[in-house]
Amino acid sequence: MEKVTSDISGLQVQDESTADRKLLIAIDFGTTFSGVAWAQTRRPDVQSVIIQWPDATTGGLEGVSSDKVPTELRYEHGECKWGFQVDDYGLRHQWFKLDLDPSQSRGISDLSRQFPDQHALPPGYSASSEKLCTDYLAALRSHTEKVLKFKLPSSILRSTPIEYIITVPAVWSDSAQAKTRACAERAGMGKGLQIISEPEAAAIYALHAMDPHSIQVGDTFVLCDAGGGTVDLISYTVTELKPILKVAEAANGSGRLCGSTFLNRIFQKFIVNKLSLNEEWDEEVVEDAMKRFDLVTKKAFRGSANEEFIIPVPGLADDAAQSVRRGKFKMSGADVKKIFDPVVDEVVALVRGQIAATNKKVKAVLMVGGFGQNAYLRETIRASIDSGIEVMQPPNGWTAVVRGALMKGLSQLEPETERVKVASRSARKHYGTEIMSKYDSSKHRKDTSWWDDYDGELKVFDMSWFITKGSPVTEDRAFIRKYHKVWKVSDGPRQTVAQDILEYSDPDDKGAPIYKEGSAVKHLARLTADLSCIPVGELTQKMGKDGLMYYVIYYEIEMTYYSAETKYALVYKSVKYASVTAEYV
């Protein structure tokens, strides 16, 4: 991987004592909160989560202590404020990460439409999603490297290459993955950064944290990463126990916008409707009530209608009818349940759907993420699924994603540290390219055929699918397909040869279409190989059936499927033109 010159290291010069040392920083780039963890390859067993963040008042490194930092921005007087520097008052940029993938608009739940954040800037704000993500990631990187100045000797920081790994949602499109990578690169994280899906990272940590004696080959687990904004799910079946735990995807990932932030938004609507007619009502009352609900009430709620919660409403006049006395509002468990149920119901539906999608006997549902630690959510899921399925909350649930991402990144750099390996994944779409094929009356329409002078036969343009949706794919094996292009010598040599990569989501699981035209097949990327440096005399020429001479170019397409991205390469005469030149749309 490419070495990154950072703020803390200056020019990195390696000697023999540090030649095999690297510093890996994992970024859980979340919708509402983000986390950072780091480790050295020399000491992979020592893995640290950053818990120090600057706030709005001190401006130092240690203003707030938290496992994560809000994914929020505000631009004031030419300055970019981020995380805890953004106070509770005034408008702010939030949820901008989701704008990187407009294709996921179908995942926007009714909750997000019914309960918008009153302090969020509306859609169409001047800053693009790419700029917002880049600025936020740059602030996160800069802060992380400042913190590391106090964690490691300066001699180590000057001489140790830094590499990054960043997480993305399981349902992220290839285009969104490419945008995320581009934002991270512009933020100073280097071109060699790794990308991993959020639920896969969480699964790696959660399975590693489980008692190994409780896991058997054939066990299937559903991982539910319930965060502040999104809830992502994925399932794995254990395939091997030794020498390391290996798992295979049991179903495609799923997810929606139904995280715990919506509890806050529903509560805000509730408290405004309930008390806004009080003559002493103002916005500060809302903020104080929201803080209490967020920090105490929603974490303590167990689901009983008999529970009671005290919400501070300073300054409001006593009102026995509205349960307000001495600046406090008494909230019943029944009212809290009404706030929880619309959100919890959506999560339960996702969990049940993921269990059904595995078509297997599921051993346990593993709950991670901040919302995943909620007792009412846990018990509601437990009551809504088969009694034989356990519902478990692994330790460090809120930081499981960033911890798992760090474990994955370390295993890529130091394979001997790997403890949990995803042996195969389930392809989320059909991937292929359009080719010329010999006309076959049993599957092709006659009106799509045309006469090919070179081969002297009827041809059609149809699809060649090299990966089909749902098929198992691994990082260890590239899919390779051979192709060729033909054109008349009289037309002159070409400077390039290009191949379009196409995708089909197949939402109804009816199978991939034969033709690109008239279907929902989408253009994904274009791979281009440079032929300008090849002498014309070295280009292969063959005579066609029509007696004319043709150039014939033989090449291969390689496709490798990773945790959260797919890489392509076009190979011509043993030269690999890598996917970094692909043009995503």
The main β sheet shows up as: 7 strands, mixed
From the spread of the alpha carbons, the general shape counts as elongated
Structural class: alpha+beta
- Could you tell me the mean pLDDT? 86
Cα separation of the termini = 26 Å
Stretches where pLDDT falls below 50 for ≥5 residues? 1-18, 579-585
Helix content: 10-25%
Radius of gyration based on Cα positions: 27 Å
The main sheet orders its strands as 19-18-12-13-14-20-24
Q: Give me the number of helical elements.
A: 10
How many β-strand stretches? 31
Beta content comes to: 25-35%
What does this structure look like?
This is Actin-like ATPase domain-containing protein. With 585 residues, this protein is of the alpha+beta class. The protein starts with 22 loop residues before the first strand and ends in a 7-residue tail after the last strand. Mean pLDDT is 86; it is low at 1-18 and 579-585. It has 10 helices and 31 strands. The chain has a 7-stranded mixed beta sheet with strand order 19-18-12-13-14-20-24, with helices on both faces. Strands 1, 2, 3, 6, 10 and 11 form a 6-stranded mixed beta sheet that branches. β13 (231-240) and β14 (245-256) form a beta hairpin. It is elongated, with a radius of gyration of 27 Å. Helices cover 24% and strands 32% of the residues.
